Amino acid sequence: xxxxKLKIDPATALQKAQSFCSYRERCQQExxxxxxxxxxxxxxxxxxxxxxxxxxxLNEERFAKAxxxxxxxxxxxxxxxxxxxxxxxxxxxxxxxxxFAEIDEDEYEEILKKIIDKKAKSVxxxxxxxxxxxxxxxxIGKGFESELVWGVVKEY
Length: 156
What we know:
mainly alpha, 9 helices
């Protein structure tokens, strides 16, 4: 059974949303979901979102940059997976492009090589073809472009 939603007034919600956004970068959809969780009505939610944007607590471009650089550096995600997640969060192509500008091409390839190297050490397959397929499938699953992955996997 779903628990009843706690209704808070818009002024309190704005303060809570400001601290929610201060903790780390957020996208509009995350904040919108949180405001609805707090029991606010659509008109109140949109007013608070507008206020957060004008006070610079919310900035989708800034969020995309932080998200993209964090996910590829810390989680080892590739561009495909990052793009898919940003799209799910409701970001437009312009913001996604700005986020990808944070990804250094050389560093991106180095991260891919480390991921492939680590996976290559753990794959016990004797058949070279199957072994390379397993390694490549893992890296592609992490969101890296298949041409890039196969270019690196051929070296193993």
